Sequence to fold (93 residues):
Amino acid sequence: MANRRRIVRATVVGVLVGLAWAPLLGRAILETMRGNGATTCMSVYGMEIRWVTVLTLSAAVLLALFIALALRWWERRDDLAIGRLFSRRVDGD
Fold:
């Protein structure tokens, strides 16, 4: 039950972060396609950020997310294989 709650919570947080990031990413894509990638937008702290930097940061975060998910899958696969190996060994004795 706790695992299901954690999955639901992670999904809700992911959707909210995606909805918050989507307008900025969409605007960055449009500005870059129009040839204005070197122009700047203002951040919350008053810093100027180039549109190309927004795209680069988005790509880096997305790549890190996919790598983390692949590593998580790999570790779970190994854990299950080790669990099956130990359960066979205990049953065999």
Observations:
- The CA atoms of residues 1 and 51 lie 43 Å apart.
- The longest strand covers residues 40-42.
- The chain has one domain: 2-92.
- The chain has a mean pLDDT of 88.
